[in-house]
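From: lab user (bench 3)
To: helpdesk
Subject: output format question, protein + flavin-adenine dinucleotide

Hello, I'm new to running complex predictions and I'm not sure whether the block I got back is the full result or only part of it. Here's what I submitted:
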Amino acid sequence: MALVLTEEQTMLRDSARGLIGDKAPIAHLRKLRDERDATGFSRELWKSFTEMGFAGLLVPEEFGGSGLGCVEAGVVMEEIGRNLTPSPFLSTAVLAASALARGGSDAQKKAYLPKIADGSLIAALAVDEGAKHRPTKIALQATRAGNGFKLKGAKALVVDGHVADLLIVAARSAGNPGDVDGLTLFLVDPKAKGVSIERTVMVDAHNAARISLDNVEVDTDHVLGEVDRGGALLEGVLNVGRAAVAAEMLGVADEAFGRTVAYLKERKQFGKLIGEFQALQHRAAHLYTEIEIVRAAVLKALQAIDTDPENAGFAVSVAKAKAGTVATLAVQEGVQMHGGMGMTDQFDVGLFMKRARVLQELFGDANYHAEALAAWKKY
Amino acid sequence: MPDAQNLDQFRRDTRAWLEANCPAEMRTPMQGDEDNFWGGRNAKFASDAQKVWFERMRDKGWTVPDWPTQYGGGGLDPAQAKVLREEMAAIGARSPLSSFGIWMLGPALLKYGNEQQKAEHLPKIARGEIRWCQGYSEPNAGSDLASLQTRAVPDGDDFIINGSKIWTSYANYADWIFCLVRTDASAKKHDGISFILFDMASPGVTTKPILLISGKSPFCETFFDNVRVPQSHVVGTVNRGWDVAKYLLQHERAMISGMGGRDGGRPLGQVAADSLGTDDQGRLDDPMLRGQIAAFDVDEAALACAAERAVDLAKAGQLHPAFSSAMKYYGTELNKRRHEILMSAGGIDALEWESERSHDGARARAWLRTKANSIEGGTSEVMLGIVAKRILDLPGA
Ligand SMILES: Cc1cc2nc3c(=O)[nH]c(=O)nc-3n(C[C@H](O)[C@H](O)[C@H](O)COP(=O)(O)OP(=O)(O)OC[C@H]3O[C@@H](n4cnc5c(N)ncnc54)[C@H](O)[C@@H]3O)c2cc1C
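Helpdesk reply: Thanks, we reran it on our side. This is the complete output you should expect:
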């Protein structure tokens, strides 16, 4: 498969760019932030996303979606990254849709996928517990009880957790934290007894929640996939999420960079455009090169998930690690080259810096994925 | 889709052919420059396997798989050429022929040469019969290449060439040179340059090797003293040689950017584990170095994606002509980092300079040689300048 977007994918990008740029530019995020909006995203915007078919991108056609692939999801994520748009696209259209499509029973698919596609259901994936992303260390306990399980424990950084109609919770049903095996995924109703949800207001003004489960009862038909063997399903879904987040970071990096280059061409000091200074030119050129390399690595990862999901982990780790490092560099250089203006809230470049920091942590930072690569290569 | 099917069939055939025809010895990493086969009038093979491998590939046109068959190429389309590269990489097959003719001159001749020049030179390049060298740099024209002073003055149907070049790689082994000369001294500096080809055996051409810090001297100073060259040997238009020169540089840069990958080197993690050992969990027994290698592996794998994408973009007509500068910059800086890590992993053992055990200091010499990667073919600073001005459109100083 060629590492360039097809004509259809380019059209999708253009329509995403049009819609998001139009209805949800950065001012949209600012408004939600400044009004301390309780939902943290616009239902109206989500309706437009749904009408464009974005919500059901990864939902198979038989369940009302368009059955497209990760490359298409990545294309939309990149535009979201460019505009720092808050929306349930990642939590619901990417993570929940692929979890259900990959691991769901027929009944589960029928119950949830059409609602994801028509925009009426928002879902959130609850994985991490500690300060860093370590899926094997999941400790949230699932103990067998009656005709099902009782869940006890807590989750952090659950994207869209506070607005979700459905939680997908990764729990330990066997073994000990640190074991690769022994995980099970559960579909949990956020209104169930024992669930408490606290919205965490984060540095980037996007949506996330801390969730704690106090002996929450779930019955067996709410198990997603197989009991004790959820690790592989989870890893597969996480890989989709990682590649998607990498695509968002690409958007963040590329947009922050584009704005920086534009600034170099307009700001004057010492009687010159600052873009004439070679010290800045070289840093800009370096950044350009890094971003183009990320673009290729992200596309490679998205394609790998679509064509060879079993072996996509390597490409995904490369993309997430590289995108994390480069997005970090792009936003830091962005602030620096904007000088004092870069430090003001009024200028957007700082918002990119905040978002990049969050995306870097989400589903494994650059170190996590470099480590994964080392393990993969056995050294 | 019939196309995909054909490509699958091509892949199967190629795999089978390589399996049957690539000698086992030619599937091991090269140890040093001696393992390259450079062709030319005085070509010598390092082994029978090298000879067999070269001849079989040559006969299929696969020294230059994507050149037209009429010029000795394999006539493969870009997708097939990619398959061949992938299948060769899969078995670790060495390149059968190393050649500035293939990497640099060939593409320039295909674009700018006239029919006679193509028919004359391309098949000889493809068959490894003529070894070429590059006469670009001069003592006072390095990064500022267009300030070159070597003069070519018309005399009847010929030019008389006087001047000198420096850093001419392998000039002392080369049969022919592609050379930049000044044909109009009064024009603006880019407008008076011509791109010309001539035989290194012509009267008046002499070379003098330059010893490098790696202890090797594949580089020369090259002197031209009233060298007579037919005017018909100019490629493209007289005084418009800068266009040809730049086009050739794009190919040179793309070639140099991929050089780290082409040595078929073993994965860094394995090399380091062999020399430093592993802990009880199988992890390299030097956590900081392990982290450096992992970070390197991320960058290298990502760069490989970008190189692959560049080929696909070119095919789709979407590649920026200056993109090779970005890749050259990144690839060479990365290759230097790779060799720093190799030295670090080798520790004291990697410091040996003269011994059989160390293949005559192969690792240390290779490390030193890589320092030129970010100088030859245009320095990293110059590459960044090109990206800044031509791609990012930043104001020129
Ligand atoms: C191993 C090796 C093989 C080579 N092979 C060949 C060959 O086969 N044929 C051939 O013709 N040439 C060859 N070269 C020459 C090579 O192309 C030149 O060395 C190169 O272009 C740099 O020129 P220079 O050495 O004169 O350095 P200089 O141009 O003197 O540069 C010195 C330093 O100044 C910096 N600098 C210069 N200009 C600028 C600028 N505008 N902005 C910022 N920094 C700048 C450079 O980046 C460098 O760091 C080879 C060189 C080497 C080392």
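A quick orientation on your result: The mean pLDDT of chain A is 97. Let us know if anything else is unclear.
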